[in-house]
Each structure stands twice: as C-alpha cells, then as structure tokens.
Amino acid sequence: MKIENMRLKEMLRINFRGLTFIAQDKIRGILLMLFIGIINAVYTFWNVWLLAVLADALQAHASAQTLIRDLALMAGGGLLVGAVNFTSYYILFYIGSNVWEQADLALNSKMMDMDYEYMESEKVQNQRRDLDEITRSYGGGGINFLFWRVEVVARTTTEVLIAVFYLAQMIYKSATLPGTHSREMGFMTALFMLMLAAALIFSYRQNIRWQEDRFSLENKMIPVNRSFTWYVENYLEKTEASKNIRLFKQQSVLMERIQNIFESITDKVGRITEIEEKIQLFLGALRAVLLGLVYFLLGAIALQGGMTAGNVVLYAGAIGILIEYFSEWVFVLTELATNSKYLKAFFDFLDIPNQKYEGTLHTEKRDDDRFEVEFRHVSFHYPGSKQDVLKDFSIRFRIGERLAVVGENGCGKTTLIKLLCRLYDPTEGEILLNGIDIHKYDYQEYMNLFGVVFQDFKLLSMPLGQNIAASESYSPERVYDALARMGMSDYTKKLEKGLDTVLYKDFDSSGIEVSGGEAQKLAMARALYRDAPFLILDEPTAALDPIAEYEVYSKFDELVGTKTAVYISHRLSSCRFCNDILVIADGRAVQRGSHEELLADEKGLYYRLWMAQAQYYVHGK
Ligand code: ADP
Question: Is 508 left (phi over 0), alpha (psi -120 to 50) or beta?
C-alpha cells in the first residue's frame, strides 16, 4: 500500500496504539461500535436469506402461512435492527463518544508540560496548530476518525467475509454441476471469477489513488485553514489588533487576504468533492456490470438444474453485497491507512521528549534562602539559530542580595533568566545551584525556587485570587498581603466581588478590564505570593507610571526581604538602587559593580549607556 513511506507494519502499530489510547477512556464505546457493526452486517444478509427461503417456498408451493411468516420475519428483522441501532447509538452518546475531547485534552496537557524549549519553537507550535486543523478536516482526522471507523470496519469486514463464503459455495456448486454443459459452465465461472477479481483489484487501486489525491488536497487545506483561523483569532477578534487596524486603515488589506484564503478553500473543497463524486460514479458503474454478469451466470446454472430458486437469490444477493461492500471495505481501509499519518502526527506530538523531568535531586530547604547560583562558561543559541545569544558567560550571584542586569535591548538579559529557570538548556557550559548542575535537581522542586515576572507575563481570565495564587484554592490573607505589598490595597477595596472578581471579559461579562500598569503590579503580586527564594523581575516597571515605579524601587528591599533578587532592565536609572549591577553586551558579561563604581569607568559601556540615556531625562525629551 503506497502510503507515503509508512509500512503496513507501522500503520497497524499506530492504529493499534490509537485504539489503545481510546480504550483508556472509552473501551465500552469501542465494544459497542463493534457490536453495532456486526449486527448491521448480519442484517445486510437478513433480507437476502429470507428472500431465498421465500423463493424456495414459492417454488415448493408452500402454504400461505409459511409465506406470511417469512414476510413477517423480514419486516420484524428490519424493525429490530432499527431499534438496536437507535438504542446503541443512544447508549454510545450517553457513555461518551466525545473522543476528540480526550485527544484534545492529551494534546493540551502535553503542550503545557513539555519542555518550554520545544513548546516555544515554531515547529512545535505549527505541529499543534496542524493537529487542530486535522481535526477540522478529514472527518475529524486522527483519533476521532479512528474511533468512528470501528463500526464501519467491523461491519464491512463481516459483510465481505460472509459474502466470500457464499461465493465459494456457489463456485463449488457450479463446479460440481452434474449437467451436460459442464465445460461451458466451468468456462463461464472462470470468466466470472476473473472479471470479479479484475473489478475488485481495479476498485482497490482506484480507491488508493483517489485517496492519495484526496489526502494531498486535504493536506494543502491545513495551512490555508490555519492561516484563516489565525487571522480571525488574532486580528479580527482581538481588541488590541482592532485598534491598530482601525487607526492604520488596514481593513482592506486584511479583507483582501481573507478573500484570497476563502477562494483557496472553496477551490480545494470543490476538488475534494469532485474526487468523492468520481469514486461514487466509478463504483456504481462497476456494480452494475458485475451484477449483470452474475445474474446471467446464475440463470445459466439454474437452467441446468444445478440450484434452487432460493440459491439463485442467495448467491446473487451475496455477490451484490460483496461488490458493494468490498468497495466500502477497501474505502474504509484506505481511509484508515491515510488516517494513520494523522495518528502518527498525533503521537509524534505526544512523544516529544520531556528531558527536563529527568533530574531527581531534591533542592535544599534552606531557612535563610541562601542559594548560590553560578553560570560557568555558558554559551547558548536558540534551537534553529546559529547566532550565540550568550557567549562564554560566567557569573556568580552574591546570594541573598540584589543583582541588577542591564544592557541594551536584545543583548540576552531575558535569555539569561530563561536559562536560569531551565526553560532552555545551555548549549555549552553549565549552571550550578549550590555547586550542583541544575539539571540534576527535580524539575518541579527546582522551579519552585523562582518567582518570576517575565516582560510578557500573562494574567488569566479567571478570578483575581486564583490569578495571584496561581491555584484554585488559596489563602485570602496571603493574597491580600501580596496585593498590599504591591500597593494594590485601594484597588482591591473597590472591587465588589473582592478576590472573586474575574479579570477580563473573555468568559464573564462582569469581568474587569485591567490596565497595563495594574496588570504589571498584579503579576508582581503573583510572584510575591509564591514566596520563593528567588524573585526575578524582567523589566518590571515598563508599564508603570513614574510614581508607581518610584514606589517599587523605594520598597524593593522590603519586597524582597531575605530573597535573592534579579532585576532586569534596559533603563539604567531604574537599577541604581541595586548595589550589584551586571552589564551585558552582545551576550557577554562586560562589567560588574555598584552604580558609582561603574560610572567611574568612563571608558566602560555602563558610562556610555548612562550618558546616552541621561541626556533624554535631562532634556526631558
Ligand atoms: P533582552 O532581554 O536583552 O532584550 P533577549 O534575551 O530577549 O534580549 O534576546 C536576545 C536575543 O535572542 C535577541 O537577538 C532575540 O532576537 C533572540 N531571541 C530571543 N528569543 C528567541 C527565540 N525564542 N528564538 C530565537 N531567537 C530568540
């Protein structure tokens, strides 16, 4: 089976893994699907069997009673299967057929738990979006698709097996026909068999080819759909983006792009439908030709006296079923073969390694919060980039003190923190905590050492208290205390619902909007609530007004207490209060000292940056 480099063994393995995945949560769903499939397959033959019995009865001039009984069985069977189907599907929905949710949950929790390094990479982000798009195309491709095909596979496989059984029986009968024209009969049977085999092989090959066309078209749809979703979610539905779109009059540019996307989607959907119609047309024609042939053959055998009227009905029916459902069987198997690629994409995503979780050492529980951190000859470049962001970078933190990290935009300050927090690993060199490589520590315990406010922090559309505590359960006193330390007491007093006030209006119309400055203080309160030995603030005052900024500086010692604080800023004036300032330039630690010491070195970078920045403050530009 030519399905892009995927061997049959691999396909079987991945489908089995898919079923095992579904069975973790929905084993009853799978069993019910199998049951529905088999019941319906048997029912496909039900009417053929009864018709055969009826034909024999008519031939034998059976009583009206027998005929009525057969007809009643026919109608009763239909009613019964209808009822079984209805009830089974009802039960299926009741016990949970929402397999896509199960798959989506697995993907989302993987996204949240995987190593940040992967999570942030464009490749993984696109992988995740593609998986979303896959579930939107190809009948909910991947896990969901597999689940819903269990019934079709069970049904068509049973149908084909039963039909093949009757076909074999028919051939046996015609081969052992006692009549005078046995040679002609043998020849006709062989011809029929040949034509049937040719038709089945042709049907199989066409199916595979069309499936591949369809798959490649569906695949082309994925990036198109992805960009459309992206436009809607990030531009059209985002208030921040709308502001800019209005101001810069970007409506027509955007509408034109969206129009292009629409046209591309319509074109591809049209082509997919065309392929599906072609398949149906082809199968219809094939069925008609073969059925004509089989009736001819059976008629001839019956005329020879080789079988009863019932047999003719039975075999004609079985072969009709074989032709009809063989195509469906091939169709579903090729669909599953194609779907294997989506399953593979799904499991490839879940299999992205979580290397960060390999450490096992416990972090020391120190009452004095005295932790020592050392960067030893650390070099680092982002995955997929050759540019070293940090180069042979070595520093030691004076523990329990405040370290300011300054440098121009893009010099690597945030990267330094990402490495310290184990969001990324150094490409070379090592980072030590109390003399031990940070890799060796248990990841969660290690992460608990840090309260970080990143420049691009995010508060969630959830109640205020849960945001600050980063948990559904929390101590209100501690939350109020953290807010008070950030000067937010008046702010919280004004909130009618207090800590239950929902931030933003995404999910709750009574939610409150939060200004940039307020959000920054809330994010800092969240870091304080954590009460971790390290407090790391990345450009923490960027959104604050000068008064609020001043408050943060003046209370900084009080906020930090005995903790080790790392304070990052490109604005030198906001770091003056730290007695230990590290200057980074071009990924290297170039200077270190107090503000006065650094300023005394007139050839140093700090002096140059200070003078350059000071002139704006002095002239008030
Ligand atoms: P700073 O915090 O000093 O402004 P950063 O540490 O954020 O600087 O960035 C340092 C350099 O690394 C910049 O050139 C930036 O473009 C690059 N960079 C930051 N994040 C990534 C990333 N995820 N992938 C690739 N390059 C990145």
Answer: beta
Judge contact between 556 and 562, C-beta under 8 A. no
Question: Whose structure tokens read 């008070």?
Answer: 484
The tens digit of pLDDT for each residue in 228-283 reads 777 887 887 777 777 777 877 887 888 888 888 778 878 877 887 887 788 778 77
- Which one is predicted more confidently, 573 or 448? 448
Ligand 1 pocket, 214 CB below 6 A? no
Q: Which of 117, 414, 536, 572 to mutate to test the pocket of ligand 1 (most atoms within 8 A of CB)?
A: 414
Q: How far does residue 219's CA lie from ligand 1's centre (Å)?
A: 33
Residue 72's H or E segment, with its range, is: helix 64-95
pTM, whole model, 2 decimals?
0.70
Task: Please tell me the predicted confidence (pLDDT) of residue 619.
Answer: 47
What's the token pair of residue 178?
Answer: 């006692």
What's the CA gap between 439 and 445, in Å, rounded? Answer: 12
Coil, strand or helix at 274: helix
CA of 390 to the centre of ligand 1 (A): 10
For ligand 1, the distance from its centroid to the CA atom of residue 415, given in whole angstroms, is 6
**Structure token pair of residue 277:** 């119609």
Helix (H, G, I), strand (E, B) or coil at 259: helix
Ligand 1 pocket, residue 119 CB under 6 Å:
no
Question: What span, in angstroms and rounded, lies between the C-alpha atoms of 67 and 57?
Answer: 7
pLDDT bin (cut points 50, 70, 90) of residue 583 is very high
